[in-house]
Specification:
With about 260 residues, the protein is α/β, with parallel strands linked by helices. About 40% of the residues lie in helices and about 15% in strands. It has helices spanning about 15-25, 45-60, 65-85, 100-110, 165-175, 185-190, 210-225, 230-250, and strands spanning about 5-10, 35, 90-95, 120-125, 135-140, 145, 160-165, 195-200, 255. It has a 9-stranded mixed sheet, with helices on both faces. The longest helix has 23 residues, at about 230-250.
Length: about 260
């Protein structure tokens, strides 16, 4: 079964201690994981960094931090490696994911059940305020839920997910337009017929101080200045979130995270 669904591990060369801890959490699965050496965006040459982020800024997205750029490039490499293989589905994890070997088996079984136009987010939403907006309906197998398009923007992180060849290609096509956050799930599938599924199999440490990407996002948040316009935008966004959630609840969706 593991040969049918390869497991790609995203980890920086310098994070040997994380891989050691991961191997102790997943003693049975770790030997079969294919390590993809992550790109450290903080070490990119300035000219390379700005060349990568400029198209996104021109398209109206916020500027990605160097760590975010490195994360996106790392996951792009994973998806390319997967599409170069003969496999139809794969599982992708990062070195800080929490779980057990039993969870890996469950995730692989679920990946074999989802349709070809699917991405499965296997948990990892701990500590994220947006998780309250992750709504879903039972997919009909295991504890897997299909999300409405509304919830796509509220699923975050790339610490544990599964893709098919169709969904992996859709993500790469979206990045080809301009480099996006690695977890821009809502953006990836705006124009693609891909459904996001959710299954609470793995988790992510609630303490985000050890996460390179989370620290860069916190720094961006602290550096942004407040204004009346920004305040009004946030209030309007909050109202839209609540109205969207209410509409989904009325259609029979329920919180799944």
């Amino acid at each position: 079964m593991k040969q049918q669904v390869p497991i790609y591990l995203v980890s920086l060369d310098s994070d040997g201690q994380r891989r050691k801890e991961l191997s102790s959490r997943f003693p049975g699965s770790y030997p079969s994981m294919e390590w993809i050496r992550a790109t450290d965006g903080r070490k990119l040459h300035a000219a390379t960094y700005f060349k990568l982020v400029f198209p996104a800024v021109s398209a109206g997205f916020r500027m990605l931090s160097p760590a975010e750029v490195g994360c996106s490039l790392s996951h792009i490499e994973v998806l390319k490696r997967f599409l170069d293989s003969a496999h139809e589905r794969c599982l992708v994890i990062e070195d800080d994911v929490l779980g057990k070997d039993e969870g890996v088996n469950v995730a692989i079984e679920q990946m074999l059940e989802v349709p070809g136009n699917a991405v499965v987010i296997f948990g990892g939403q701990e500590g994220m305020p947006s998780r309250k907006y992750i709504l879903g309906k039972a997919a009909g197998f295991g504890r897997v839920y299909r999300l409405p398009k509304y919830s796509n923007n509220y699923v975050l992180r790339t610490c544990c997910y599964g893709v098919t060849r169709e969904s992996a290609k859709a993500i790469l096509d979206s990045h080809d337009q301009c480099l996006k956050l690695a977890d821009a799930w809502g953006e990836f599938f705006k124009c693609a017929p891909i459904d996001i599924y959710f299954s609470e199999v793995f988790s992510h440490p609630e303490d985000r101080s050890a996460s390179h990407i989370e620290q860069s996002r916190i720094a961006i948040g602290k550096s942004s200045k407040g204004s009346v316009v920004l305040f009004l935008k946030k209030r309007w966004a909050r109202l839209k979130r609540k109205l969207g959630a209410l509409a989904c609840l009325l259609m029979g969706y329920r919180r799944v995270s």
